[in-house]
## 1
Amino acid sequence: MVQATSAGLHGVPKEDLLDLVEALRGVMMAGRRKAAGSEHDKSVFALLSQLMTAGSLRASELAERACLDLSTVSRHISALESNGYVSRTPDPDDGRATLLAVTKAGQKLVRETREQRLTMVASALKDWSDADRADLIRLTRRLAESLENL
């Protein structure tokens, strides 16, 4: 249960919390609108990135890492497989299961998409000072760490 006080929640003014949530939402929405590709492509990119980082995984493990329902991941994996971005191999620990891996074509897609996104963010930050960019990185990492530690 979140503790409410006269100062807000956990001593943080509620207006600050609302402003932060709106600012983060604005960043995510602007990034999605400006990123190349369809919404489907963006979901697929997220799964490919997870899989590329983790290595071979079962679909259930990928769903858990991506915080998605297994049925959603299964649909995306089918599309990824038919497009040649993901391959399946038997799981050596369980003959009934398969492991998913990113193919060379999938790795190329992830690299190209990351480059496009980096270019977009670089363009957005081009007029920022080194100190402002460093502050953004430091504070964003701190927020992510604090959220992980809840």
## 2
Amino acid sequence: AEQLGLDENQKRIAEVIGLYHDIGRFRQFKLHRTYNDPKSVPHSDLGLEILKEYDLLGELDEREAELIVAAIEHHADKQLPEGLKGDKLLYCQLIRDADKIDIYRVVTEYYEEYARDPDGFKIEIELPDEPWYSDEVYQKILAGGRISYKILKTWNDCKLVQLSWVYDMNFGATLRRVKEKKYLEKIIDFLPDTEDIRKLGKVVLEYVEKRIAQN
């Protein structure tokens, strides 16, 4: 928000969205013992339910509350619905970008922890930790396409999908942060060291450089 030049009130709205966007995760885990939306209920829906139940936005201007609700409602969508524009589109794009940066931080820490001590790793891995990856996933990402999580077969497939997130980032500021933190390089390091992976890594990193230059 700072790097995009938003004013003080816009930054406050962004901060509320950041604080509340995953508030549904607590109820999701309490009721379903999972953070997996397809296996339970969309955590965004639960978040909106909680905002309404506790009137958490009751003191805000109606327009500001609508912006926050829209951003939380759509932050985990595979892609944003058509028709969003103006500030609604801005905040939806902003939280989606910020969310990806935060997930990069978390997963790269997990990968490092798992590499140090696989047997002591306490986080559930929902897909097999196999030394291979799916060619279908690889080819779709190489072509810059979107991936359905339903086709993922291994933990390496998840890592490949995380590389593809750069194609769905909206702001140069986001990509600059990703580059500064070397999140993509860290993920690539935890994938098999093959010629295909090196090729894909080069494509993804060059895409990031190009987008940064354009912005």
